[in-house]
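F.,

This is the one I mentioned.
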């Protein structure tokens, strides 16, 4: 597992925690470490082997254990549990450019969007533009992204 993949997992964790309304400091810690990992000049698997993870800014005991688990097993139980306990479809929505945790939460909770297909239908039915923080321009961008990923 490379640094970019690990960083993506930590960013997903931060996003899911934000959707759940978790402590803002915890969310920021995951966001910060995700950005740091993505920019590291050395792969984390090498740092794990050399027992140098604590040299990475933002890596404390809990995150160090998570990185070791990811590097050695290729998965993270904490992340899998968090995804399983999240609303259906939230992680798919969070991967769409322009959809952050707050927007994803609104789409799931107010419109019952559980998939990219549900989002596309909500856009076509003009339901999405009635939501706070989502206007016509955003709806068009989302639809363009959805349709461009199919080709």
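My design for it:
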């Amino acid at each position: 597992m490379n640094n970019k993949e690990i960083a993506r997992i930590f960013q997903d964790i931060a996003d899911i925690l934000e959707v759940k309304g978790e402590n803002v400091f915890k969310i920021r810690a995951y966001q910060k470490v995700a950005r740091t990992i993505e920019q590291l000049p050395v792969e984390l698997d090498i740092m794990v082997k050399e027992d140098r993870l604590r040299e990475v800014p933002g890596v404390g005991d809990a995150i160090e254990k998570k990185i070791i688990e990811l590097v050695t097993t290729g998965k993270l139980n904490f992340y899998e549990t968090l995804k399983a306990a999240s609303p259906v479809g939230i992680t798919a929505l969070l991967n769409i450019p322009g959809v952050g945790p707050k927007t994803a939460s609104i789409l799931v909770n107010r419109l019952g969007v559980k998939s990219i297909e549900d989002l596309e239908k909500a856009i076509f039915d003009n339901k999405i533009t009635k939501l706070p923080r989502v206007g016509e321009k955003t709806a068009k961008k989302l639809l363009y992204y959805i349709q461009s990923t199919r080709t």
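The longest helix spans residues 3-20.

Talk soon.
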